[in-house]
C-alpha cells in the first residue's frame, strides 16, 4: 500500500494510491476528482476512466470529468426551489436552468487534502466549505469526500457533510468509465446491467418530469446484461432526445444485497466494474457529445460515446418531486452516502 504525491499543473496536487495488487487510483485536490483508475491485466496496464494530465487541462477542456459534483448534481429547473416556505433562486448556468450546482462549484474548487495508509487500505480525503449564499444556496456547507482503495480491489467514494442552515444537498461523482482503455473507442460494446425497474424520462431541456417509467419493453431495460449500443441505436424518443442515455435509473435494491446494483463489462471481458451504492438512483450518461466530436485526451481523441458515467445520487428534480428521494439537509445534521466499485480483474 502506498500513496505518491505529485504536482498536477500549477497549483493542484495528484495523489496516486497503489494497492498490493498494483491497482492505482489517482485523485486530485482540484475538484476532489478521480483522475486515474489503472489496473494490471495479464502483463499490461489498462486505464479504466477518462481524464486529463493537469488541472489546467480540465479547466480548458471539460471541468466535470471525474469531479465531485455539487451542491446539487443534475439540473434544477429555472434555478428555483422552495425550502421551509422560502423561495430560493440560484445562479443559472445552462439555458434557463442550474446544472451541477451552478457555475464554478465543487468541480472548480481546490479542496484541502489528507491521506491515510493502513495495512489493507489507502485513502485520500478532501474537504471544502461552500460559503452561505454560494451561487444562491443557503448555509455554510462543509463537505468531506473520501476516496479509498483496498487490497480487494475496491474503490469506494464516501461523502460526509453538514450545513449551519437548512439547504439542498445532492452530490455525485462524475466518473466516466471506458473499460477498453481508449477514449477514442466508443463504449457501445460494453455490457451493462442495472437493477432498476424504472427510469426517469426527460423533457426537451433534459429536465426530469417526475414520471417513473417502467423499463419493460424499452431500451432502458438493463435488468439482464446487454450491450450499451442498444440504447445508442434505439428509436425510443427518450434515447433519440439525448442521442443515447442521460437518464436516472431508479435502483431496486437496498445496498446490503449480495449482487451489484450495476455492472459494466469490457468488450474483451477482461475487466468489469460492480457498483453498489446507498443512493436511490444512478444517472447513466453515455458521453453524448455529438457526431464527429473529438477532444484531445492522453495521446488520443475522446470521441462521441467515448465514456459512460455511473453517477450515484438522488434523481435530479427531487426538490420538486419528493418521490425521487429527499435532498433536504437540515441544519447541523450529518449527511452520509457511500458508493463502492469492485474492480473485477
Ligand atoms: C451529466 C448530465 C449531462 C451533462 C454532463 C456534463 O451529469 O446529465 O447532461 O450535462 O453531466 O458534461
UniProtKB/TrEMBL annotation:
<dbReference type="GO" id="GO:0006006">
    <property type="term" value="P:glucose metabolic process"/>
</dbReference>
<feature type="active site" description="Proton acceptor">
    <location>
        <position position="311"/>
    </location>
</feature>
<dbReference type="InterPro" id="IPR011013">
    <property type="entry name" value="Gal_mutarotase_sf_dom"/>
</dbReference>
<keyword id="KW-0413">Isomerase</keyword>
<protein>
    <recommendedName>
        <fullName>Maltose epimerase</fullName>
        <ecNumber>5.1.3.21</ecNumber>
    </recommendedName>
</protein>
<dbReference type="GO" id="GO:0030246">
    <property type="term" value="F:carbohydrate binding"/>
</dbReference>
<dbReference type="GO" id="GO:0004034">
    <property type="term" value="F:aldose 1-epimerase activity"/>
</dbReference>
<dbReference type="InterPro" id="IPR014718">
    <property type="entry name" value="GH-type_carb-bd"/>
</dbReference>
<feature type="binding site">
    <location>
        <position position="246"/>
    </location>
    <ligand>
        <name>beta-D-galactose</name>
    </ligand>
</feature>
<feature type="active site" description="Proton donor">
    <location>
        <position position="174"/>
    </location>
</feature>
<comment type="pathway">
    <text>Carbohydrate metabolism; hexose metabolism.</text>
</comment>
<dbReference type="GO" id="GO:0033499">
    <property type="term" value="P:galactose catabolic process via UDP-galactose, Leloir pathway"/>
</dbReference>
<dbReference type="GO" id="GO:0050558">
    <property type="term" value="F:maltose epimerase activity"/>
</dbReference>
<dbReference type="InterPro" id="IPR047215">
    <property type="entry name" value="Galactose_mutarotase-like"/>
</dbReference>
<feature type="binding site">
    <location>
        <begin position="174"/>
        <end position="176"/>
    </location>
    <ligand>
        <name>beta-D-galactose</name>
    </ligand>
</feature>
<comment type="similarity">
    <text>Belongs to the aldose epimerase family.</text>
</comment>
<dbReference type="InterPro" id="IPR015443">
    <property type="entry name" value="Aldose_1-epimerase"/>
</dbReference>
<dbReference type="GO" id="GO:0005737">
    <property type="term" value="C:cytoplasm"/>
</dbReference>
<dbReference type="InterPro" id="IPR018052">
    <property type="entry name" value="Ald1_epimerase_CS"/>
</dbReference>
<keyword id="KW-0119">Carbohydrate metabolism</keyword>
<dbReference type="Pfam" id="PF01263">
    <property type="entry name" value="Aldose_epim"/>
</dbReference>
<dbReference type="InterPro" id="IPR008183">
    <property type="entry name" value="Aldose_1/G6P_1-epimerase"/>
</dbReference>
<comment type="function">
    <text>Catalyzes the interconversion of alpha and beta anomers of maltose.</text>
</comment>
